[in-house]
Design a protein that fits this description.
Layout lengths: L17 E6 L17 E2 L2 E2 H16 L3 E7 L4 H10 L5 E6 L4 H13 L10 E4 L9 H13 L2 E7 L5 E7 L6 E8 L6 E10 H14 L6 H7 L5 E4 L10 H13 L1
Parallel strand pairs: 1-4, 1-6, 4-5, 7-11
Antiparallel strand pairs: 2-3, 6-10, 7-10, 8-9
């Protein structure tokens, strides 16, 4: 099922500032490096810098004001500050320590937004975008910004291209070891791969984060918390090229994509 493009009423004006939380605490384990993957260089530019530069380009082209908070590990705060200064990312207003999980780190980012000199108003769109998803394109940012005005919660997504099978664990009769076997094949036409940006109206994000914590709801995906609380999550079409740098293969794909531009 194809996701329709965002269509705004002709009288609709996009004026609100864009608030941005960037979780940037990922390790380099699956990259096979000892350093944080946020500092891994793609064609000479650190992954996190490329992510921030994409939003910088969007601000410059559209005139939309961006207020950003970066959430990282305590030991990397000074390095992130240096990176922000080196690449002249003027819209980063706070760099804060994250928590034990992504959910905890996003909560730290939400708290930091409230402490900005110009904190968000209740209907301002707040983007949560992975620091390692450095190939985000301008059209995806623009579509998510429009979606953030229309919906309480939305997320960049692409229709699933692969067949997905649900597995269950079964004991191998010969070895006695547990081994996954196919339980059923899911209907690909109803499946989507979600990416980031994930966008919330500010008041909704604050409410979702607080209620999830109070109820003990956990998730690795920010919009899954909204789903668990019965809030509709709208899908926004984006590019298959909006990849997250997690493995060496991802880095190679990103370098190839950049060579084609």
């Amino acid at each position: 099922m194809k996701i329709p493009k965002i269509t705004l009423p002709s009288s609709f004006e996009l004026r609100r500032p864009l608030y941005l939380i960037v979780p940037a605490a990922g390790l380099g384990t699956r990259m096979g490096i000892s350093d944080s993957k946020q500092f891994f260089r793609i064609n000479g530019v650190p992954v996190l810098a490329r992510t921030l530069l994409a939003f910088s380009d969007y601000q410059e082209k559209t005139g939309i004001t961006i207020h950003a908070v970066i959430v990282t590990t305590e030991e990397n705060i000074s390095r992130v500050k240096e990176l922000v200064g080196e690449y002249k990312i003027s819209f980063v207003e706070k760099i804060v320590k994250g928590g034990a999980t992504r959910q905890d780190s996003v909560a730290c980012g939400i708290a930091a937004l409230a402490d900005l000199d110009t904190p968000p108003q209740e209907n301002d769109p707040v983007f949560i975008h992975d620091g390692a998803r450095c190939m985000v394109d301008q059209e995806t940012i623009a579509s998510c910004y429009s979606g953030g005005h229309l919906y309480d919660v939305c997320v960049a997504a692409t229709p699933c291209k692969n067949t997905i099978k649900m597995a269950v664990s079964s004991e191998d009769g010969k070895s006695g070891e547990k081994h996954p076997i196919v339980d059923k094949t899911l209907d690909r036409d109803t499946l989507y791969e979600v990416q980031t940006p994930q966008v919330f109206k500010y008041s909704v994000l604050v409410d979702v984060s607080k209620r999830a914590k109070d109820l003990g709801i956990t998730a690795t995906d920010d919009t899954a918390l909204a789903e668990a609380l019965g809030i509709d999550v709208h899908l926004i079409p984006c590019s298959y090229g909006n990849i997250k740098i997690t493995t060496p293969e991802d880095a190679a794909i990103a370098e190839y994509m950049l060579s084609r531009k």
